[in-house]
Design brief:
- With 391 residues, this protein is α/β, with parallel strands linked by helices.
- The protein folds into three domains: 2-107 and 233-301, 3-Layer(bba) Sandwich (FAD/NAD(P)-binding domain); 110-229, 3-Layer(bba) Sandwich (FAD/NAD(P)-binding domain); 320-386, 2-Layer Sandwich (Enolase-like, domain 1).
- The chain contains eight helices and 25 strands.
- Strands 1, 2, 3, 4, 5, 6 and 18 form a seven-stranded mixed β-sheet that branches. A five-stranded parallel β-sheet has the order 8-15-9-10-11.
- Strand 12 and strand 13 (211-216) form a beta hairpin.
- Helix 1 packs parallel to helix 7 (287-301).
- The radius of gyration is 22 Å and the shape is globular.
- The mean pLDDT is 96.
């Protein structure tokens, strides 16, 4: 049995940030990190962004690991015994702990077919598999019009590839953008050479190797050398659920990021936490949340008593367009668009009961804090009052 003062389950950005947080307070406490990944922790966003358009290599996205950390790679935690404070992995190894962090992240949702043919894009191995294909092949189908689908389609198109996007919704990122921006993005992608098949479902993928055919509900047969899917993720809560921790659309944590067991913490994609700006419990699957919450959890495990009072932001890059957003971003809310230059620069405000609940900065930079302050103020506003509020 291996014993650690701090044991982390998960090997993503949240886990890496937690290592930093622990070492900021405790320079010597023993740390073990248990991850199913075959790689040490790395930054995930570059997999669909910078690695495709900037001159960086996978080696440059690896996270720096503090000293005196034992990495247990390619190991999956199978059981968590809260009473004994022990974790058993899929090799039968047992790890005991004083403090435990669940940074188990999330898993891509899958279609009910074609697992061997489809790259469910999320990991460094997925990136390397797709990048290798793109070096020799030309035709790609991207299933899904959300964050991952839109970024991967743009990345492949910028490599000169023939790309077809298909998804059941009416347009790209329709869950977050108002209809006029969805329509604009659909045409923007077409102008960039991407074939757009909106309101289309996939029925199957047949073929082998680089000779695949995607079958759609409307009877289309799309030839492809590679098929990538980004259709959402689901939090990895099985370990927590089986152990008896409180789970509600994620592992529920308090403002110290403790679960229903005081010596077990959770952070990142898997955690259902209190957002002090919005005043609600929520779960967030983005980089800023992973880094900020991971570090806070590490510090809390090591004795810091500062509550986690942070509202994370997220961002995306779509060809030459980019945005940052904070708060509740949903096309189901009332939206007010304040363009500085139509579809090039502007601010989208998301309102509920005449109060700003979210702000999306469209090619507007350096204003995330101003957006947070506006949301936190909770004041009733009119659309007219928002004109020029953030520039």
């Amino acid at each position: 049995m291996k014993h650690y003062r701090y044991l982390i389950i998960g090997g993503g950005m949240t886990a890496a940030a937690a290592l930093e947080g622990i070492r900021e307070i405790d320079a010597d406490g023993s740390i073990g990190l248990l991850t199913a990944d075959t790689h040490p922790p790395y930054d995930r966003p570059p997999l669909s962004k910078k690695l495709w358009k900037d001159d960086i290599t996978p080696a440059q996205i690896m996270r720096k690991i503090p000293e005196r950390v034992d990495l247990h790679l390619a190991r999956t935690a199978q059981t968590l015994d809260l009473a004994a404070k022990q974790v058993t992995d899929d090799h039968g190894e047992v790890y005991s702990y004083k403090k435990l962090l669940l940074a188990t992240g999330s898993t891509p949702r899958k279609l009910p077919f074609g697992d061997g043919h489809i790259i469910y894009f999320r990991t460094l191995d997925d990136y390397q598999r797709l990048r290798t294909l793109a070096e020799t092949q030309n035709k790609f189908v991207v299933i899904g019009g959300g964050f991952i689908g839109s970024e991967i389609a743009a990345a492949l198109a910028m490599q000169g590839k023939q790309v077809t996007m298909l998804f059941p919704e009416r347009g790209i990122c329709h869950r977050i953008f108002p209809p006029e921006i969805v329509s604009y993005l659909n045409q923007y992608y077409r102008d960039k050479g991407v074939e757009m098949l909106a309101e289309e479902n996939v029925n199957g993928v047949v073929g082998s190797g680089q000779y695949l055919t995607v079958l759609t509900e409307r009877g289309r047969q799309i030839k492809a050398n590679g098929v990538v899917a980004g259709i959402g993720v689901q939090p990895n809560v099985a370990l927590a659920t089986a152990a008896g921790l409180t789970v509600d659309k994620g592992v529920v944590v308090n403002r110290m990021l403790q679960t229903s067991h005081a010596d077990v913490y959770a952070a990142g994609d898997v955690a259902n936490f209190y957002d002090s700006v919005l005043g609600v419990q929520r779960r967030v699957e983005h980089e800023d949340n992973a880094n900020q919450m991971g570090k806070a959890a590490g510090r809390a495990m090591a004795g810091d008593t500062t509550p986690y009072d942070y509202s994370p932001m997220f961002y995306s890059d779509l060809f030459d367009l980019g945005y940052e957003a904070v708060g509740e971003i949903s096309s189901r809310l009332e939206t007010v668009i304040d363009w500085q230059e139509p579809y090039q620069t502007g601010v989208i405000y998301y309102l509920k009961d005449q109060r700003v609940r979210g702000v999306l900065l469209w090619n507007v930079w350096g204003q995330v804090e101003a957006a947070r302050d506006l949301i936190a103020a909770g004041q009733m506003v009119t659309p007219q009052a928002l004109a020029g509020r953030i520039v």
